[in-house]
Amino acid sequence: MPQRKSWVYYNDRLSRYLFISSAVLVSLIILCIIWFVGMQGLSTFREVSIIEFFTSSKWSPDSGKFGALTFIAGSIGTTLIAILLGGPLGLAGAVFLAEIAPPWVRAFMRPATDLFAGIPSVVYGYVGITVIVGLTGKLTNSPTGYGMLAAGIVLAIMILPTVISLSEDALRSLPRTYKEASLALGATRWQTIRRVLVPAASPGILTAIILAMARAIGETMAVQMVIGNSPRFPDSLGSPTSTLTSNIVMEMGNTPFGSTWNNGLFMMAFILLIIALIMIILVRTASRKGAAR
Amino acid sequence: MDKIVVNKLDLFYGDQQALNNIGIAMKERSVTALIGPSGCGKSTFLRTLNRMQDLIPSVKIMGQVKIDGQDIYAAGTDVVLLRKKVGMVFQNPNPFPKSVFENVAYGPRIHGETDKKKLSEIVETSLKDAALWNEVKDRLHESALGLSGGQQQRLCIARLLAVGPEILLMDEPTSALDPISTMKIEELISELKDKYTIIIVTHNMHQASRVSDRTAFFLSGDLIEEDVTSVLFTRPAKKKTEDYISGRFG
């Protein structure tokens, strides 16, 4: 045995440290973001009461009113509309692709779905402005059509690829034997899908829905283009309002760093971050539940 | 009385012929074993009897399969009713990721039974008929995936009995099981044949001779010979059969 350690040994050591330091760096960046946004945001409450921030819908920084309820309601409302419209539609698409579509249709639709996911959100917003706003104006009898419904519809379209591809993967990864067993018992294709395949894939489908919600609640550009950007509480589906993201992007440039107004916007960003964290925890629980069965 | 009569059955996967002019008749309330080396077409043949083979794209089937005198490949055949009548047990136990109860109740439910009391009666009788009741009666609402392999296979048989079939197709039902579970399934088969017509594919010639009344020997998509089991294993008429059962190939 040679006494001196070979270069392989040092190479192994070196790459080990390289990977460890990369991992540390990444975690550090994430923690710094959370820390910075959190600190900046929470300092809002030195001048604004927590209760006012979360329960008042009066947002007029010039006169010292910082009630963010409008934006929270706007974000949650648009996301719910998006999930209610896009979730069932996406699941239906996934079932179609996984179980019903002939191979050539799937060979065409699956890449198309992935392409959908890659379209920049400003394009969705532009389509929203030109097509959907007119439609929602008629639907809600509002003069402009800008508002939660328009944003919800645009978001529903945007989350379709996420819902479709993740749910399809979940359905496809089921053992073939479930389907065979069900059909051999005399079940129709529809009974098999509804009573065996979709329930068996439900953890994966749930993950898809939650990730889609995360995408919807964080979407900024497309929402900002069709929501109307008025800090007014959304009392109808067709009235202009704002969401957390759209308001941050509209006002962030006008506010001096460290002012209460600026801090308020940071607090809104922090709320988004917390929501994202909760979603991630939910996804993990859902997939763990799936693995445990 | 002949329950199943197969006439001039050919089956193609694309251009490749997998079954070649099969003709065979099976009696009601009897056990027929299908034996032969891997890839000889015995499983393929089994799956033509409940039209599960239709699920594979590019399959072409010609000829006649008559069950109770009706050609199941005739236009207008209700595949759902056919599969209700001709049930199937698969090689690997394949319970649904549901509770024991829901697994057995699945069949009756899809065929329209909603009465809770009736469902639990069906579940109980089916589990008893599959010789599983005593082992699972206290855990009916736990996941079926927690059962052992042998229990899962008997659960699949119970799930099948619950829809009220007349014919049971078994595709190597014990090949994934340990010897004791295998023995239990074999005992079950000899009890079930009082009520059902059973066709079992098996790799194991001892199993064929233990459980079956008649045995059919398949080779490369041909039905070489079919006879009373004891005759086929002791005085086979064909040279190929003799070579196979004496272990000269396969």
From TrEMBL, chain A:
Assigned keywords, A-Z: Cell membrane, Membrane, Phosphate transport, Transmembrane, Transmembrane helix, Transport
CDD domains, A to Z: TM_PBP2
Topology term for the membrane: Multi-pass membrane protein
Transmembrane segments: 17-37, 115-135, 147-166, 196-217, 264-283
Domain ABC transmembrane type-1 as annotated: residue spans: 72-283
Main location as per UniProt: membrane
The keyword Iron-sulfur is assigned to this record: no
NCBIfam families listed in its UniProt record: phosphate_pstC (TIGR02138)
Family: Belongs to the binding-protein-dependent transport system permease family. CysTW subfamily.
Biological role: Part of the binding-protein-dependent transport system for phosphate; probably responsible for the translocation of the substrate across the membrane.
PANTHER family from the UniProt entry: ABC TRANSPORTER PERMEASE PROTEIN YQGH-RELATED, PHOSPHATE TRANSPORT SYSTEM PERMEASE PROTEIN PST
Protein's UniProt name: Phosphate transport system permease protein
Protein's organism: Desulfosporosinus nitroreducens
Primary gene name: pstC
